[in-house]
Design a protein that fits this description.
Strand content: under 5%
Largest sheet: none
Number of helices: 9
Distance between the termini: 61 Å
Number of strands: 0
Number of domains: 2
């Protein structure tokens, strides 16, 4: 279905959810609405596609020591933190990040004939180390930005806080001697 119809539908029915409509089955099917799911315009927006998420997890497994020991729920929270941070950035920056992840994944082809995810640990670390210390400033900046996102996603999870000795005080007066 064309985009203008979906936009019209979203404006005409701002509070419409599945199960509260008398739309025909065929029309709901064309709008990609399934029972128990929200329409297209009410779904949470993901800033990275599945391939970019997979590449991001590959980089995280190399850069962050404890990433490979994480469970599925922790990995989802890791991606959610990064996705939230990317949601505040312009679309052009999100496209640049996705492109840079592709570059990181395919650059080892020129030296070892394999993508980053299929290299052994030592070679993968050497490939990422080259990007970290690259002679081209944009590659260095891109890698450090990506590394910052990965660390934010890993250390931003609540279950890691006790391991690093972080004890937040949510009432705002924890550091005061009151």
């Amino acid at each position: 279905m064309s985009l203008w119809i979906e936009r019209w539908w979203a404006k005409a029915h701002p509070t419409w959810f599945v199960g509260q409509s008398s739309l025909s089955y065929r029309f709901r099917q064309r709008l990609s609405i399934r029972p128990g799911r929200f329409p297209l315009y009410n779904r949470p927006v993901k800033n990275l596609d599945q391939d970019a998420e997979k590449r991001l997890e590959t980089v995280a497994a190399i850069v962050v020591p404890g990433f490979s020991d994480m469970g599925q729920a922790s990995r989802e929270r890791f991606l959610e933190i990064i996705d939230d941070a990317l949601g505040e950035r312009p679309e052009s920056m999100r496209r640049q990040l996705a492109f840079f992840l592709k570059v990181l994944d395919f650059a080892p082809y020129f030296r070892w004939g394999r993508p980053l995810g299929r290299l052994d640990t030592a070679r993968a670390e050497r490939a990422l180390l080259w990007f970290q210390e690259a002679p081209i400033a944009k590659l260095r900046q891109g890698f450090w930005g990506l590394k910052t996102l990965v660390f934010m996603g890993y250390y931003g999870r609540n279950e890691v806080w006790p391991e690093v000795g972080y004890e937040p005080d949510f009432d705002g007066v924890g550091g005061l001697d009151v």
